[in-house]
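User: Can you help me understand a structure? I only have the sequence.
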Amino acid sequence: MSLTCRATLRGFFGRGLQLDAMSAFPADGPLLVVCNHLSNIDPWIFGGFGPGVLYCMSKRELFNNPVIAWILAGCNCFPIDRGAADRRALRTSLDILSRRGRLLIFLEGTRSATPGMRRAEAGVGFLARRSGATILPVGVWGTEAALPRGRKFPKRVPIRLAIGPTFTLPERVPGERRDDQAVADLIGSRIAELLPPAYRGVYASLEEPAATPRVG
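Assistant: Let's start by predicting it. Here is the structure, written out as tokens:
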């Protein structure tokens, strides 16, 4: 399945598809690969070029089509109900990470209507906090022009994917709790650093939040 995705993307976009070396992906987990989200092309890039086994959440509506559901299952995707706390999807995610797996998450939970980043979903911070996984920030841009919302067929435009350095959350201080949204914003700020200024959205001027904020 990954070879098909890779050949299709490379054949269509050619040299316009510029990706950082995927060797930057750690081979071992637990690993959270967190990326901004602009287009339905985004997950296919990871499916085609991401090295090794990489699991991914996908909106449940995509699984209504049997053919698409079969393709997604072959790409190690599992469904999530958006707009609600999907405990089953969270349990599946934590189980993958507890088995030292690697999980791809799109930070904003849905595609941005404009190139600028939306606020990160707090659930990303929850998974990072609970799993203690290494975090790999990834930034993508250009895919919003390649396949805008409402367009059925892609256009040949330049696409860029940048991979940042991995990091982990510092150990928790006894008696101190982490705020999931603040952790998610920390990850969002790391992704924003990889993007051109026009794509940073809500993180364009946000100071990097503390990784272990107090909840009062």
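Now, to help you interpret it: Residues 14-42+88-203 form one domain. The radius of gyration is 17 Å. Let me know which part you'd like to focus on.
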